[in-house]
Amino acid sequence: MSLLRDETDELLFDLLKDSSESAFTVLYNRYWDKLLEVAFVKLQSQEDAEEAVQQVFIQIWNSRKQTVIKYSFRTYISAALKYTIYAKFAERKKRNAVQFQDSVIETLADDSTRNWLQFSQVRAEIEILVAQLPEKCKMVYRLSREEGLTTKEISKNMSISEKTVEGHITKALKHIKNNLSVLFF
C-alpha cells in the first residue's frame, strides 16, 4: 500500500475498479479529512458530516466497476459529496416538515438574508430533484433551464425532435413541481 500513496488519483481509481482494497484505502485516506471539513461546514453537524462522507465512500466502492469519471477523481468525489449533502438536507426537511413550514412562513416575513437562504435551500432541493430524473430528461432540463438554450437548439444539439425536447422539459417540470409542493403546502 505504501507504494500506492504516491500514485495519481486516476491510477488509483483504475486499480479500484479492479477491486483493489489498497487503492481504495489510499483514496480514502487522501480525501477523508478534506471531505469531512467541507461536509461539516455545510451540514453544521459532525455526525451528519461523517455519515455523508462515509456514504460517499460506500457509494464509490459499491459502484466502482460501473463508474466512469469524465474529468478527475477529485471532481467526481466532490460532486458525489455535494449530492450527498443535498440528500442530507432533504432528509432533514422531511424529518422536520412542520418546523420547515414554519420557517418558510417566517422567512417570507423576514429580511432579505433569510429570503436568500430560503432561495438557496429551494435551489438545493431542485438540484436533488433534477438529479433524480432520467439521464436524457436531466440533460434537456439543464440545457433549457441552466444553459438557456431554446427547444430548437437543444433538439439540434442532441439530435432529437423538438417534441421530444418539449416532452422532457414537461416531465422535468412536473416532477419538480409535484415534489416541491410537499415543501410549501
Automatic annotation (TrEMBL):
One of its GO terms (biological process) is DNA-templated transcription initiation. Pfam families: Sigma70_r2, Sigma70_r4_2. Residues 127-176 form the RNA polymerase sigma factor 70 region 4 type domain. Gene3D superfamilies: 1.10.1740.10, Winged helix-like DNA-binding domain superfamily/Winged helix DNA-binding domain. GO terms for molecular function: DNA binding; sigma factor activity. Keywords: Sigma factor, Transcription, Transcription regulation. The keyword Transcription regulation applies. It comes from the Bacteria. The keyword Transcription regulation applies. Residues 27-93 form the RNA polymerase sigma-70 region domain. Belongs to the sigma-70 factor family. ECF subfamily. This is Sigma-70 family RNA polymerase sigma factor. It comes from Pedobacter frigiditerrae.
